[in-house]
Amino acid sequence: DIQITQSPSSLSASVGDRVTITCRASQTIITYLNWYQQKPGKAPKLLINTASTLQSGVPSRFSGSGSGTDFTLTISSLQPEDFAIYYCEQSYSTPYTFGQGTTLDFK
Amino acid sequence: QVQLLESGPGLVKPSETLSLTCTVSGDSMRSHYWSWIRQPPGKGLEWIGYIYYSGSTNYTPSLKSRVTISIDTANNQFSLKLSSVTAADTAVYYCARGGFYRGDFDYWGQGTLVTVSS
Questions:
Q1: Best CA proximity match to A15, nearest among A77, A85, A102, A86
Q2: Is the backbone of residue A30 left (phi > 0), alpha (psi -120 to 50) or beta?
Q3: What residues of chain B, 22 to 81, have a C-beta less than 8 Å from chain A?
Q4: How big is chain A by its Cα radius of gyration, in Å?
Q5: Which residues of B44-53 are buried (b: 16+ CB within 10 A; e: fewer)?
Q6: Which of B2, B32, B45 is the best residue to mutate to test the A interface, defined by the most A CB atoms within 10 Å of its own CB?
Q7: CB contact under 8 A, A97 and B47
Q8: Among A1, A14, A17, A104, residue whose Cα is nearest residue A35
Q9: What are residue B85's phi and psi, to 5 degrees?
Q10: Mind listing the pLDDT tens digit for each residue in A38-87?
């Protein structure tokens, strides 16, 4: 199985801050890396697929980058609705695997 | 608008079989891969497996001996069966649609909590 290591596990920030979350895969996954946002009691929402493709309706303050084994999710200017848990996931090969999650909360 | 809705018992006894159904609306099941994903309370996400409309399946190795995913395209449904459950199988179970790249999940059900307890 491909292991995904996500960091940090938690992050405190303020509205307007720029934040970055990273994921590292245990082997190359080319760009088959997806990012999800999950709010309490809700299903995850796909934000970005194939490392950098923003899904329709997702604000442009979200961006993704990386290839091979190292990937980042950046939120350029945090908004109140962005405080949530973020997961990365590799879809290069089965079994698909997720990072442990990053909880983004108010500083 | 694509919608997925999970249904099934919220409580299952240890050693019994967990059975859930996902009903899909707003989409043809012939175009995508359909997955089950679970999340134990307060923990992260685990992909369980997927099915294609042809019936082709792929399961995560750690659950493969206990999992069966089936599809009913006539009724726009796919189902999950997990046998010999224990408390470790207590989780919110989600059904999800695989997007263009199969493993990017672009539509999700709301999730259903299944508790394993006697």
A1: A77
A2: left
A3: 35, 44-47, 50, 58-62
A4: 13
A5: ebbbbbbbbe
A6: B45
A7: yes
A8: A104
A9: -70, 150
A10: 999 999 999 999 999 999 999 999 999 999 999 999 999 999 999 999 99
CB of B3 less than 8 A from some CB of A: no
Q: Which of A55, A92, A101 has the CB atom closest to B44's CB atom?
A: A101
Tokens of A1: 């199985």
Separation CA A88–CA A70 (nearest Å): 11
DSSP string, B17-63: -EEEEEEEESS-GGGS-EEEEEE-TTS--EEEEEE-TTS-EEE-TTT
Cβ count near A48 (within 10 Å): 23
